[in-house]
Design goal:
alpha/beta; 10 helices; 10 strands; disordered N terminus; disordered C terminus
Length: 279
């Protein structure tokens, strides 16, 4: 806790969200959300089904515009950017989608090579070298020639991670990175993501409801509320602060309980139909 506070006093935030509001017709999905993300953090956004966390993520990557408020990334308000400037800004961050979003018609190596082909002027030989290195880093040496349908779910997640980090971005957004994985593979993906992002000095923003994963990877956490607290931040802090939080809603969520104290179910998939466009 103390180390974060001292570092935040001297570091400028990579992301600064101020009074973010988003309406969909009469429904207010985000309601005055404000927070900052500092360099080197693994910042987790959590909350129950329908709380607005996937909507928040879409605003952070610029695929949706706020009703009001601002979202500054690298000091610039992305909501006010032209398409050309937004495209350049997106080249500075990676995106790890919940489904992996690997193109089924391409090999794993070709999927990982995509950002390098589209956004650099490297020659093919050097691109192949970088792809080989990235696949080695995620434990997929020897699998580059395979199609996504030929590998397991855990391998797809690792391949998607290699693609997201192909350009060594200073910022990585990750949507439910461990969804559908067993506890062992969840830990593997968590540890691998942390290892690789620390190696390149990347800041990570994660949307997830996996409590084991949250408390394993997070440096700071925000939780969005539902119901009469829809789209507001009901808690924020370090993992220890969230564990000790007195709010009953927070306590129920982290303990997996419903309102009557019984174990609750998992969160719905809220992040369908989202594409990270770079054009």
């Amino acid at each position: 806790m103390a180390s974060h506070e001292s570092s935040s006093q001297v570091a400028h935030p990579l992301i600064e969200v101020d009074s973010l509001v988003r309406h969909f017709g009469p429904q207010r999905v985000l309601n005055g959300v404000s927070f900052k993300v500092y360099p080197g953090e693994t910042f987790v956004i959590m909350g129950g089904s329908g709380c607005g966390k996937s909507t928040l993520l879409r605003h952070l990557i610029g695929t949706e515009k706020p009703t009001s408020g601002s979202i500054k990334i690298f000091g610039d308000d992305i909501a006010k950017m032209s398409n050309q400037r937004l495209m350049k800004a997106r080249n500075k961050f990676g995106m790890l989608f919940q489904s992996g979003a690997l193109l089924q018609s391409l090999t794993i190596a070709e999927n990982v090579a995509m950002p390098l082909v589209e956004h650099t002027r490297l020659d093919r030989k050097l691109i192949d070298t970088v792809v080989k290195m990235k696949l080695e880093q995620v434990g997929l040496t020897g699998h580059g020639h395979k199609k996504p349908a030929q590998i397991s779910g855990g391998m797809k997640k690792r391949a998607a991670l290699a693609r997201a980090l192909a350009l060594d971005p200073p910022l990585l957004f990750s949507d439910e990175p461990t969804a559908g994985l067993d506890p062992i593979m969840t830990a593997v993906v968590d540890e691998l993501t942390q290892k690789l992002t620390r190696k390149i000095g990347a800041t990570v923003v994660v949307v997830t409801h996996d409590m084991a994963s949250i408390f394993r990877i997070a440096t700071r956490i925000i939780m969005l509320g539902t119901g009469d607290r829809q789209g507001t931040i009901v808690a924020q802090g370090t993992p220890d602060e969230i564990r000790a939080h007195p709010d009953p809603l927070v306590r129920r969520f982290i303990n997996g309980e419903t309102d009557d104290g019984e174990p609750g179910g998992g969160e719905d998939d809220l992040y369908h139909q989202t594409l990270l466009r770079r054009t």
